[in-house]
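[job 4417] fold queue: 2 targets
>>> target A
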Amino acid sequence: MKPLRILRVLAAAIGFVLLAGYFVGSLDWCRRPSAPSPRLERNQSAQGSLLAGAAEVELQPPYPVVKAGYAPPRPEVTVAAHPLHARALVLEVSGLKVAIASLDVLLIPESLSSEVRRRIQDLGLAQIWLGATHTHSSMGGFDPRPISEMAGMGRYEEQAESSLVKAAVDALRAAAATLKPVQVEAGEARFPDLVTPRSEGAEPDGRISRIVMRQGPSVLAQLVVFAAHPTLLPRQMDALDPDFPGLFCDRERRSGHGITLFLQGAVGNVSVAFSAPDPWIRKQEFARQLSQANDRVALSPLAPASLEVRTVSIGLPNPDASRSAPRGLQNIGRNLLCRSAPARIEVSELKLGPLKLLFVPGEPTVGSEKRLLEVSGADRVVSLTNGYFGYLEAPELVLAHQGESKRQYFGPELLEVLASAARVAGHSTQLTQGK
């Protein structure tokens, strides 16, 4: 057979394979059922004296480890410029125990959250919220989902996941072993000069929500909810770093404010409103400004001492790649998303006295947070906890392909799906509790 004819045959064969692959990839392999009604999984409450315990454990990454936070290429590093931590707070009222833990990482996949829960079943915790500070300069490699590996986390390594599980478990166990009576104070203030919007939509207000646990004159721990992307360090830096949340938590502890858990609020479209030529100065200066703002939050006692937990599960619709994939490749994009976007998630509420926090496993924008607060009656949304379904944008911006919609895995119906779960989580209901 002549060389030219051989090349023609090979080209035809390759073309056939590509055409067949396109046809097969364009079929609807996802086909999720319509999102069912929200299901109440847990509804527990208790009144009485509040006990609390807190702990902080340094992460031990399995170097060399890939950095997370950005698309490829990603550097592999062998050192941390500043220590990474897992921090935990355990609360108990009349035998009802819950825990909140925060890791200096980009996000929390559901697989990581489930493994941590499995490892501490003996602690008798009714609910565990495992959250991420969302730093874009920490370790990756611990999320096995394909889209996550490609988009921001790097290739999955079991050792990376194991190191995070160990740190979270150690922090939670240490916190649970030190429960003591505490008094609670809380407050909130707005600092709009600290933040700026990074896309269309509702403007961020720089709100800081602060919950302080006191043992007499001393502060045991505090929860601080604030929303801003920790992207102050360059993406190709050759070391891991917790960015401003980690430095903020360290400053607070040294200032006598106890172990500080930094929790991200509606971070979806919010950036830090501070710039400086040197990224190290930028990070340190913003952590200092955030600490100064936190000190200005007026605190008032929370009473009566009561604890309430309500957890709701909800199915998610088919993923939607219409804003992220070119025309003609959207079905293939949806099928790829289907392997990484969760089919079911949990939305939950923690009520401490009159204060209500709503926890969601994604990145809501300021506009979508307003809807969730409206239907749930919560005081604040805490994002990036117990899983990750991507961004949550207001439906009008999704339809217009604006805001953070290009990063949203689902269509414009997603917010109302989440709102239906938030409504149940935030209010008493006659729904049958799931088993």
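>>> target B
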Amino acid sequence: MGKHQGSVVVVTGGAGHIGRAICGAFLREGAQVVACGRSTPAEPIASEGREAVFYPCDLRDPEQSKGLIDFVIDQYGTLDVLINNAGGSPPVDAATASPRLTEKIIALNLTAPLVLAQQAYAALAQGDAPGSIVNIASVSGARPSPGTAAYGAAKAGLLSSTKSLAMEWGPEIRVNAIIVGLVHNDAGVEHYGGAEGFQRVAEMLPLQRMADPEDIANAVLLLNSQYASYISGATLEVDGGGEVPVFLHLAKAAAEAK
């Protein structure tokens, strides 16, 4: 039997790179996984012969997010774990971003996970063991985020709400966050100017590589394991050691040029 045999887990943004890895990790541990997203994926979200149930919804609409929680309770009668993974933002210049786009970015990355957590509260709090919420945040919420200012502000708010909810909802529910660093995916290679640019960025990190989605999934499992039973209100940085300040690279380049 897996460590999460019989657990019911909701993963938002379950069809994306990180979302699929999180779903797969819980499926391998025996959980019943419900993934959600705006569009039903072309390929099932599955791992080792087990498949997640997919519930299509736009989490920015509170009625649709409530429908997700109602569906889970109707189908399984309980909810043990909520992973607020859905999020993201296109690159956007702060001086020219429309108010509507800014609202959409904040709604997806801050308002939606907060509202969904509120809607899931009663179900998560009713079990014998504490329920668990893990918010997938970003380094953009912990340092300047030029080019994605609204996204960074929303993720900073998500980190703040993580600590607030942990205080309000303990001991019935543990609430934690993961600060995700740079993650390896095909879109990222293009974003960093091709394979060479991508590799140069990866080598700037202390661990000399970007994260794989499975690295984030493993951190999620850790925060939902018996080893994390006294962890709540915490932020776990999964960033390969952090981004080295640019001034150090400039100083090194100047020294090498002498």
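[job 4417] complete. Note on B: The two ends are 62 Å apart (CA to CA).
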